[in-house]
Amino acid sequence: MTLRIADLLRIPHVRAVNLATDSAIGAVVTDSRAIGRGDVFVAFRGSRVDAHDFVAEVCARGVLCCVVEQRWYRRNAAAVHALPLLVVKDSMRTYGAIAQLHRAQFTVPVLAITGSNGKTSTKEMVAAVLRTKFRVLATEGNFNNHIGLPSTLLRLTPEHQVVVTEMGTNQPGDIAYLCEIARPTHGMITNIGRAHIEKLQSREGIAAEKNILFSSLPADGVALLNADEPLLRSALPRRLRRIRYGTRKDCEIRIADVTLDRAGRAQVRIEAPAFVARPISLRLQAVGRHAAYNAAAALAAGFAFGCGVQKMKAALESVESYDKRLQIHTVRDIAVINDTYNANPDSVLAAIDLLQQLTIDGARCVVLGDMLELGKAARSEHEALGTALAVTGIPYVFTYGRHARAISRAVQGVAKVAMHFTDKAALCETLDALLAPGDAVLIKGSRGMQMEDIAAHLLRSDTSEEANG
Fold first, then answer.
1. Cα 439 to Cα 355, 363, 424, 462, distances in angstroms
2. Is the pTM of this model over 0.85?
3. Would you state the CATH architecture of domain 106-318?
4. Would strands 440-444 and 396-400 be described as parallel, antiparallel, or unpaired?
């Protein structure tokens, strides 16, 4: 990192206390356990831990300075008057501003990915494709928020040739803020669903928030978009170069055919006549029909950056489903679909579709927790999901949580067994008694429901090879 303390003083509303302004910064760190001499430690106030409690400790270990908030400094000024501090109004905003300063030192292209579903899975495929030609810095996991995106950019070095980053949002203004920090040159929107509809009000509101990514791109920027989504097509700035993917015949990257093998892995044929004469056939490790869209998006990115077809094909075929995202395990000859990372109406329907597509000898079962952040639409969305589930004929439906009870009610009299639980242990006991070799079970719910507890229970004796992931 080439930033100095003097650079940080350009950030509005900061005040230096006991600082040498010409000092070079080693790294910018938010974990007190990872601090080193010459680093800058940013103290966040969390819901359970306030990192300001560790300021004196990290200063004793040789940090260059600690970024602390005004309210804390005012209360503790007498005790910390001799420590090297950068006093700010908001530590999180300052962290973003530091990342913005760091990113501004590089002319590297930044491809930002947002969307209601599939951001992380798509990002993994995009990064794999671009690594066939470039040294890529990519978001780790799903660190796509006000802390995660700056953390990614602060790892940027002169060795990197391309940055691939996620941008998440759950309220108006998030994408604009993240774009200010990252200054993306390429933008990708995977879809417009119903995630985070509580604060964004509607699919149109979600689309308006996501489309800010495209309007933030420079004049020579490139927009990569799912052309099957009308709310994306209608708002794309005309000045941008665009590469469209989807099933529409006018797409530059067209999904011509998708089938699933016995394990639910997607077999995809893609046509891209503007870039390559012959169709591209992919045998993905990733499961579900939606994986075809992720792969098409990755090809769009690869073609935008001039990657070779055969290397892209090999890269895509090696990418597996990401942790807790439609991972299929086989335990005691039962297929367990662990899709517990998060849930919204669209992603739940996609997971149910995958469950139905699996070739199995036994029965199908779904275990669904609450879908959160739906606001006033929570009841109607859970009821609608239950109605859609009833049509599938899946015989075993188990639900957990306050809102998911509406799903259970909707399938009563249609499903062979429909039960609602308020206790995970009782739900697990029921599954143990019910599931038999040859069955398949899908487990899904929003992050806050921690449905991975149920998946972990079913997988506790898994010693066989995973079907995927």
1. 11, 5, 20, 15
2. no
3. 3-Layer(aba) Sandwich (3.40)
4. unpaired
β partners of residue 253: 245
* Residue 265, phi then psi, degrees to nearest 5: -75, 140
Note every long-range contact of 66-75, with CB atoms under 8 Å and residues 24 or more positions apart, other chains counting: 66/40, 66/41, 66/42, 67/40, 67/41, 67/42, 67/43, 67/91, 67/94, 67/95, 68/43, 69/43, 69/45, 72/43, 72/45, 73/17
Q: 405 vs 317, 386, 468, CA distance in Å? A: 39, 9, 31
Kindly state which CATH superfamily the domain 327-458 is placed in. Mur ligase, C-terminal domain (3.90.190.20)
What six digits make up the tokens of 364? 């199908």
Q: Which of 68, 19, 60 is nearest to 43 (CA)?
A: 68
Q: How far apart are CA 46 and CA 48, in angstroms?
A: 5
- Per residue in 306-352, pLDDT (tens digit) is 999 999 999 999 998 766 678 888 898 999 999 998 888 888 998 99
Helix orientation angle between 291-304 and 309-318, rounded to the nearest 10 degrees: 150
Closest to 195 in 3D by CA, of 380, 322, 342, 337:
342
Every domain of the chain and the residues it spans: 5-88, 106-318, 327-458
Q: Where are the alpha helices (DSSP H) in 306-372?
A: 309-318, 345-357
Tokens at residue 88, please?
């700010």
In the block, which residue shows the tokens 């029909």?
289
| β-sheet bridge partners, residue 330 | 335
pLDDT by residue (tens digit) across 388-415?
A: 999 999 999 999 999 999 999 999 989 9
Would you state the CATH architecture of domain 5-88?
A: 3-Layer(aba) Sandwich (3.40)
Distances (CA, A) of 347 to 261, 296, 326, 404: 20, 18, 10, 15
Are domains 5-88 and 106-318 of this chain identical in fold?
A: no
Other C-beta atoms closer than 10 Å to the C-beta of 305 total 20
Q: How far is CA 11 from the centre of its chain?
A: 29
